[in-house]
Write a structure and sequence with these properties.
This protein has 153 residues and is an all-alpha fold. The chain has a domain of 104 residues. Helices cover 78% and strands 0% of the residues. It is built from 7 helices and no strands. Helix 1 runs antiparallel to helix 2 and helix 2 runs antiparallel to helix 4. The chain is elongated, with a radius of gyration of 15 Å.
Length: 153
């Protein structure tokens, strides 16, 4: 896996953050959500989760190596969970705040749990692979947090 691929989550997060902070609404999005929530759902959470789905399911071996893992059947399950979160996030962008809150709850549990898993890997296994400690670690923390802020606005 090319090392630059590790920065896709950071790039999508930055795009969503900039568009959301500018106040530009997603065309056709739920008007009961701030643009920050709309863009976090659509771009950072939605598109990146679909990206993670494709990588975990169709390129499992190089992705596992980049995380510091052995290839495992659980990667398929992680990929499918990302598919569900990504589709739900994109749908919630247009369905409005109640759907946005539901997606926040699911994604925060999954992503903050994944972030804690990265911490445990660092602490217990000395795993400092790029896709354990790099941009994905921070994306796992910041995307649900920023979405929460957007939903509260």
């Amino acid at each position: 896996m090319h090392p630059a691929m590790a920065f896709v989550p950071a790039v999508l997060y930055a795009i969503a953050l900039v568009l959301g902070v500018t106040g530009l609404a997603v065309p056709g999005a739920g008007a009961d959500m701030a643009p920050l929530a709309q863009w976090m759902l659509l771009v950072s959470l939605g598109l990146n989760s679909l990206w993670a789905f494709m990588r975990h399911v169709f390129q499992a071996e190089p992705v596992a190596r980049s995380i510091g893992w052995e290839t495992s059947p659980f990667q398929y399950e992680v990929g499918i969970a990302n598919l569900g979160i990504g589709l739900a996030a994109i749908g919630a962008t247009f369905l409005g705040a109640p759907a946005g809150w539901a997606v926040f709850l699911v994604s925060a549990a999954f992503l903050w749990g994944a972030a804690w898993g990265h911490v445990r890997e660092m602490r217990d296994a000395g795993n400092f692979a790029i896709n354990n400690v790099g941009p994905i670690f921070w994306w796992d923390i910041l995307t649900p947090l920023t979405l929460l802020i957007g939903l509260l606005l």
